[in-house]
Structure formats: C-alpha cells, structure tokens
Design goal:
single chain; about 150 residues; alpha+beta; three-stranded antiparallel beta sheet; 3 helices; about 20% helix; disordered N terminus; Rtf2_RING-finger
Length: about 150
C-alpha cells in the first residue's frame, strides 16, 4: 500500500474541484457567461466566447483592470476558433427555458467526434491549431496523427 503523506481531501473539496472542472467547459473564462458559438481557445486551453475576447482586445481604456484569465492574449491570433462536435444527447438550448426547468449539466454540450467522449471536464481534450478541430486525448492517441481526420 502506497502512501504519499498527503491528506485525504474533504468531501466539499472534491465537490468544489468537480464544479470547477465542469465550469471550465460551460462558461467563458473571461466573461463568465455561458459558452456560445463561436468559441475560441488559448494556448493554455481556456475556453472563451469569441465576442468577449474581441471586446477585451478592443477596450483600450486606461482604467481597464487587467483580466488575469486573458492577460496573455495580446491579439486575436493568440486564440483558435474551435470546431466542436455537438452531443446528440444534450438538449440544453433546444428546450424552452422556464423558471421551473432543471438545468442539466450532467450531459455535456459537445463530444469527441471520434470516440464519443463528452467534453465535461472528466476527460482531457486537445485542439488542432491549424483547423480548430477538437478531439479527446484518447482519440488522438489512437489515430497517432497531427493531421485532422475531417
């Protein structure tokens, strides 16, 4: 039995970590609004609404507080527009939103087009810079190619 000398995380720490992972896949890292197409990603793997990045880059006011989530983005060339595959099991935007509707974030909005894994924070995903296609790390290991299969 191995022991790394660490402490066992408390239940609320695990819940917080899961919520943080889920939030990265559902909300813009800059505006904190729900992700909506067109979605872009930076070299750090953070996801943004493209309009939020454009507004951030255009705002040259002196009193602008530097946004840590995008401080490394100096031009639109620092982000890649993503080609995401829709998850057929996701119904979030298709249903009318009412006050009594439960917002199910258990099923992800996007999936890997090769192996069908959901983009929900539980699996690692990668994007190809030349085309913006997004695949699970598992799929990229299987196809062993930097060339987009699409």
């Amino acid at each position: 039995m191995g022991c790394d000398g660490g402490t066992i995380p408390k239940r609320h720490e695990l819940v917080d970590k899961n919520a943080e992972l889920v939030a990265r896949w559902y909300y813009c890292a800059l505006s904190q609004e729900k992700l909506r197409r067109p979605i872009v990603a930076c070299e750090l793997g953070r996801l943004y609404n493209k309009d939020a990045i454009i507004e951030f880059l255009l705002d040259k006011s002196a009193d602008k507080t530097p946004m840590e989530a995008a401080s490394h983005i100096k031009s639109i060339k620092n982000v890649t527009e993503l080609n995401l595959a829709d998850n057929p099991a996701w119904s979030g935007d298709k249903e009318s939103i009412k006050g009594d509707k439960y917002d199910d974030i258990q099923s992800a909005r996007f999936i890997c087009p090769v192996v069908g894994l959901e983009m929900n924070g539980r699996h690692r995903f990668c994007f190809l810079r030349n085309c913006g296609c997004v695949f699970s790390e598992r799929a990229l290991k299987e196809i062993k190619s930097e060339v987009c299969h699409k």
